[in-house]
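Researcher: For the annotation table, I need structure tokens for Phosphomannomutase/phosphoglucomutase. Please keep the output clean. Sequence:
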Amino acid sequence: MNSPSSTPHSASLDAIVKAYDVRGIVGEGLTESVVEALGAGFVDEVGAAGGRVVVGHDMRDSSPGFAAAFARGATARGADVVAIGLCSTDESYFASGSLDAPAAMFTASHNPAAYNGIKFSRAGAQGISLDTGLASIRDRAAAFLEHGIETVAEPGTVTNADVLADYAAYLRSLVDLAGIRPLKVVVDAGNGMGGLTVPAVLGEAAGLPALPLEIVPLYFELDGTFPNHEANPLEPANLVDLQRAVVEHGADLGLAFDGDADRCFVVDERGGAVNPSAVAAIVALREIARVHAAGETDVDVIHNLITSWVVPETIAGAGATPVRTRVGHSLIKDRMAETGAVFGGEHSAHYYFRDFWGADNGMLAAMHVLAEFGSQEAPLSELAARFTPYAMSGEINSTVDDVPSAYTRIVEAFTGRADFDEFDGLTVTGVTAENEPFWWFNVRPSNTEPLLRLNVEGADAPTMERIRDEVLALIRG
């Protein structure tokens, strides 16, 4: 195929095809004709002609139309579309894994209502990034937009399928919640897809037996305009309603899902946010213990480089090998496949499971937390504190026009006091005397904006705050 890199279509696609997915404003870069071309390009890239392609979508107003347009492009190039309708992103991964078919999920995750996008998977829920096929899908789509989509001699068909009950039953088979103590759980679905999946997995909506859980629903109505708050629990302002409700209802804990329900955040009985690194450590311990009990001895667990140090310490302390990775959804899915790791955790509340085809699943992480917490009597704040021994800054973004100069200022200021590595951005680890508190920080440039992202961790809050303030002054010049 001739490269369409110089065409207007290619330029418009460059604006919406990101490192790991497609994301754009509806009606501007992202239209049904663009989506139809992407469907055709996807089928050609993954070799799906004569086979099946799963297509699912979230609750955004534009999602059903986009899913139908994608199906037109996919069937024109010979793929049989299995349309699973409304679903969470991890439900689409379940369909891709259980059917061993490539998949496209229409969602813009936590982005505001004006956005939509596509998350692609190869068969078996394997990730696709710019480096592993997404760039080729983009280029094929640009050519189809320029020259038209040629329908093959045997176009495909569209079949509707509902996989929610099978998805819920599969997750129940992985984590047994039947024997935990009774728990009251407030769940904030943020008007996103958790409003569909939580009643099916944790309740009886999919025909499964009742669990010892009293679910207090918050914003379960599917509404892609997000009338209550943005479905992005990573932003503290979007957790306020959940935190208040947990305290008002005297609940044992709270769960918050993002728009496509593939990430889950946890709140303790006091309304305090549980650090995603603590969740990663708790789940890692459970998964390591499970496979050790089954006879595995050489066990890998993945964590990205800006999770708390407690995560690799917990993994190593449990007799497994911590594998440090760069930040990035598809990168971690690739490393899960390469290493056979039983589990992977990110600072951003993405949690990956070998028993879920190496894909991320916020619901499954939540179930592990419920199982661990529900098997003992201590409050969640006490359990979480055991896995939050250090002080973290959280991610702090600064607008920086000249990133190399900022790096130079940091290196000059910390030379002789720290070790440096450039595995992903710049990680600076303090060289401290035996009795001094440890610290480290990472700065990474954004892929899409003139931002530097800073994460700092220290042995205690004063140490973290001292390093944080020094580095911010250097970054901001």
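Researcher: And a one-line annotation?
Model: The chain has four domains: 8-163, 182-272, 276-386, 391-475.
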